[in-house]
Design goal:
Layout lengths: L1 H5 L27 H15 L5 E7 H12 L4 E9 L8 H5 L6 H5 L3 H12 L8 H18 L1 H11 E2 L2 E2 L5 H4 L6 E6 L7 H8 L5 E6 L6 H4 L1 H14 L5 E2 L1
Parallel strand pairs: 1-2, 1-7, 2-5, 5-6
Antiparallel strand pairs: 3-4
Helix pairs in contact: 2-3, 6-7
Length: about 250
């Protein structure tokens, strides 16, 4: 996906601290609201690269960070894509909420290869058939190493800041969504069980300049499951904004 987009746009793909292969931040620096905290980091990062304005695509928690970036630093964001994004409602899979219960958080987030592969195939994706067996194995290993590098303490702290046993802590209200000045594309996997499709549809209806696209067959991670459809959605969003923007 990224190499194909890079043929036409300047593509920047950050890892938030503790995600991917980026080192986690000190635990004491993690303060609520977590989405706003991540948005400030993204704003600093874009500024350090000299990027004044960009089309921003965020998925899962990255979607919440991108949404808060668009709210807090609107001049930075020419267009926004929320791909199976957190922050569009309180709902989240019951097993994830269960991990927020006292006494269950640390064992629930402790990284293991078997647990990571199970999480990938049951909650993070619905259909990995477009990936070869070696690609799926590499993706599972990447997710495991990312979590292992962050460590159990960091994962437990961020999980508690992100949700409670009742659901997500941060959910954008209609009053927050409607004033967004950017074109916003909400894109969702039809089979996402991690974050509810209906909540995304309701949130998209409150956007002043929004669109809503369902990707059939995909679960929570269409960027892995249906890369062609995600690429098409990104290109459609770029066409909606002023030419000459970056694609971050």
């Amino acid at each position: 996906l990224l190499p194909r987009l890079a043929a036409d746009y300047r593509v920047l793909a950050p890892d938030l601290p503790g995600f991917g292969l980026s080192a986690p931040q000190p635990l004491q620096s993690l303060q609520p609201p977590l989405g706003a905290h991540a948005a400030a980091l993204l704003d600093d990062w874009l500024g350090s690269l000299g990027v004044s304005r960009a089309v921003v695509v965020g998925t899962s928690f990255g979607g919440l960070a991108a949404l808060r970036l668009a709210q807090r630093f609107p001049a930075r964001v020419a267009g926004l894509m929320l791909l199976d994004s957190a922050g569009l409602g309180r709902g989240i899979h019951p097993l994830v909420r269960l991990a927020a219960l006292p006494g269950l958080t640390r064992p629930g987030v402790k990284p293991t290869r078997r647990g990571t592969d199970l999480l990938l195939r049951t909650l993070l994706a619905a259909d990995l058939s477009e990936l070869s067996a070696s690609q799926a194995a590499a993706l599972s290993e990447y997710l495991y190493r990312s979590a292992a590098q962050a460590g159990t303490d960091y994962l437990a702290r961020t999980l508690r800041l992100f949700l409670t046993p009742l659901g997500q802590r941060e959910a954008a209200t209609p009053a927050e969504l409607h004033p967004l000045p950017q074109p916003v594309a909400v894109v969702w996997g039809a089979r996402d069980t991690f974050l509810p499709l209906d909540a995304a549809r309701r949130a998209a209806a409150h956007l002043a300049d929004g669109s809503f696209t369902v990707i059939e067959g995909a679960g929570h991670s269409p960027n892995w499951e249906r890369a062609d459809a995600v690429e098409a959605a990104i290109r459609a969003l770029v066409r909606r904004v002023a030419p000459g923007t970056h694609c971050a």
